[in-house]
Amino acid sequence: KPRKSEDPLPGRAVALIIVLCVSGMRAESARYSVPEEGERGSFVANIAKDLGLTGEELLARQARLVPEGEKQYLQLNQHTGDLVVREQMDREELCGQSEPCLVRFEVLLENPLQSFRAEVRLTDINDNSPVFLNKEIVLKIPESALPGTRFLLESAHDPDVGNNSLQHYSISSNEYFLVYSRRRSDGRRYAELVLDRALDREQQAEVAFSITAVDGGTPPRSGTALIRVIVLDVNDNIPVFSQTLYKVSVMENSSQDTIVVVVSASDLDSGTNGEIVYSIVQNSEENLETFEINPETGQIRLKKPLDYEEKKTYEIDVQALDGGGLSTHCNVEVQVKDVNDNAPEVIITSLTSTLSEAAPPNTVVALFNVRDRDSGDNGRTACELTGEQPFRITLLAADAYALVTSETLDREQVEEYNVTVRARDEGSPPLSASKTLLVRLLDVNDNAPTFTQAIYTMVISENEPAGRSLGRLSATDPDAGENSRVRYALVRPLTGTLAAASFVTVDAESGIVRSLRPLDYEKVPSFEVTVSAADGGSPPLSAQANAWLSYELAKATEPGLFRVGLHSGEVRTARAVSERDAARQKLILLVLVRDNGKPPLSATAAVSALLLKDLSDVRLPGHGSPAPEDQGGSLTTYLIIALVCVSLLFLVSTALFVARKVCKRKELKAGHVLYGADNLQSGLGDGAAAGSLPRAYCYEISLTTGSGNSEFKFLKPILPSLPPQHCAVGQGPENEQHFPCVPVSTEDTAPDNPGTLSAGHFNSL
Which stretches are transmembrane (predicted)? Predict the structure, then answer.
């Protein structure tokens, strides 16, 4: 809307727009004007043109308006950039008599985040007529009043401002009075009635005429009231105030019924003509609601508390009327003093509630304003953050701030922050207000999966069918969502290496390791594979595990007689058995199995050996351990009795029996396997389930003196025969591994951290 002729800015004017970035640049507000009571959809300005942007850019950057108050009176068309009226605005309702009447807002743009301040001035239209509070005004004037005497009249009220407000008064034609329009210090006009000709009660006891208040609008509006002048008998002295202007100050937090000022007037007349009555002239409805006067003492008191932020100055007209009807008036000017009774307000204009943990320092999280309705130091504010958090406040413009990150973030340490912004004014005592913002961190894939063990050791017996579960791998990832989802896979071996990856497979989801085919211990006593764990991030991160065991001979009765393979677990003789060795000797071999975990886990197994002079001393298993000499004698006696007592047919049968025994005899040689792989491995598998190796396996072994090249002959264990049992290895039913078990005693060297351990095979060197 074009401005009126008295406005120094013709037409709609944009004073200045400077791009306001979060870097802290100051900006002047863009100024527009629009008439009040504009229809919905009325054009105000083109924001896109003023910002130097196209409609497509406004739409792409999600331009939006943020009003200063709670109600949105304006609307932005993101396609055209037009600023239009959303709801009709009544200037008198929004601003009262204040001028200029401004509707402030901010234009927010994203990508990058920018803020522009703007304000729309509501120009007044002449939509209100002057109104007298009383339609009939009664004046009592003595007939002795001299020409030129002035009488204050009740003022008309017009809520419009500028030229549209009340401009002058006029009265209808009469013989006695004239009217003059006066202007107060606040710009409002009031009327004074002037006696132009002396009154004569005997000729005319009452004079009546109308008064009209006219505003300056086009066309002008007016309001009318009736004036009745009652002519009184002679009273030749009028009241006189001690001062014509009273100036007082009152704190805005003064309570109701507080005395503001005491006015005083005197009259030289005596009797009823000298008695004075005080009253407040009805020059505004607001004064009547705020102040009251004692008609006898002249004390003016508060009828309600004052508010500096609503009104700073009051002008009260007080009249003194004597008993004879003569009156005079004075002016009381009340200045309201500000006190710190308004806490600051934190107004969030933009908030990023979710933030990537990879956001760099100085990333904008929120934009906010701080407003304090008080003035001076009471309205001067400062902002701060409570607690130790990776954020800080940056000043953008006067009372405009940005909340930005001050350091790098880590969601794995803190998933969300409650950021409290506190605004404090400089009043005495200071008042403060707080606003808490919830900022959640979004996960990025910045953590690789981690295996719970660096090395996993698993055991399987040879010739086990394909699909047998060997164990389960476990890796964790502290990230969230897909970034923490772990998938397992075998790592392709280097070119030319043993294709160990073809022996087993790993379930990608559960990490369960299963065999792909039966294995032959003599061909593959042990093997090693590398498994990677990758998360579901983009790009994915991964980690690897390797599995291996080592063996060593921890203790032996004859330390130099036996040795154990480092990785195979095979126990071999280290030298030939000599005459110096006792005929009956029990060897306790402590085999130590240790993995490379942190901390390492270990277990032990005991092996006993019996040295015999020759195989004729071998005795079948029985109770106890008789001497070699007793074993040979029993066998000879048995053969002699058999030759005597049986027939040729029985002799032939005996010969076949002896031949069978001879076939079973083996020459003991140094370096041959002491333990059967299947027996030891199955027992060790049981120990692995409990984090330890099994109890001692006891065998009776016969060796001849000087049997450096003889091999051990495995007979049945001296323990009683027990039915086979099965043990489960793993955590949970889905991860169990089953092995044949033998009840044995165990020594566990790492009871505090049980793990899945295994014994390797004891192979020949």
Answer: 638-659
In this prediction, residue 455 carries a pLDDT of 85
- Integer-rounded Cα Rg, in Å, for the chain is 55
Confirm if 163 and 4 have CB atoms less than 8 A apart. Answer: yes
Separation CA 426–CA 63 (nearest Å)? 35
Whether the per-residue pLDDT at 233 is higher than 80: the answer is: no
Per residue, the 3-state secondary structure of 579-608, as one string, reads CCCCCCCCCCEEEEEECCCCCCCEEEEEEE
Which strand (E) or helix (H) includes residue 34? strand 30-35
Residues near 737 by Cβ (< 8 Å), separated by ≥ 6?
458, 459, 468, 469, 470, 471, 685, 689, 728, 729, 730
| CATH fold for the domain made of 136-232 | Immunoglobulin-like (2.60.40)
407-426 residue pLDDT tens? 999 988 999 999 999 999 88
* CATH (one of 2.60.40.60, 3.40.190.10, 2.60.40.10, 3.40.50.1970) for 450-545: 2.60.40.60
> How far is Cα 405 from Cα 50, in angstroms, rounded to an integer?
32
Q: How far apart are CA 190 and CA 329, in angstroms?
A: 14
CB 576 within 8 A of CB 670: yes
Instruction: Give whole-number Cα distances, 24 to 395, 530, 644, 731, in Å.
Output: 6, 55, 121, 59
Residues 6+ apart with CB under 8 A from 560: 574, 575
Torsion of CA 497, 500, 501, 504, to 10 degrees: 180
Chain position carrying tokens 């677990």: 569
Tokens 């958090």 belong to residue: 389
Return the domain boundaries, the chain: 30-123, 136-232, 240-337, 345-442, 450-545, 550-610
Q: How remote is the C-alpha of 621 from its chain's centroid?
A: 76
Sheet holding 697-698, edge to edge: 550-555, 589-594, 602-608, 697-698
In CATH, what is the architecture of 345-442? Sandwich (2.60)
Which residue shows structure tokens 């006190």?
Answer: 339
The CATH-assigned architecture of domain 30-123 is Sandwich (2.60)
The whole-model pTM stands at 0.46
240-337, what's its fold?
Immunoglobulin-like (2.60.40)
* DSSP-assigned letter for residue 3: P
H helical segments located in 646-691: 648-664, 677-689
Is residue 116 very low, low, confident or very high in pLDDT (cuts 50, 70, 90)? confident
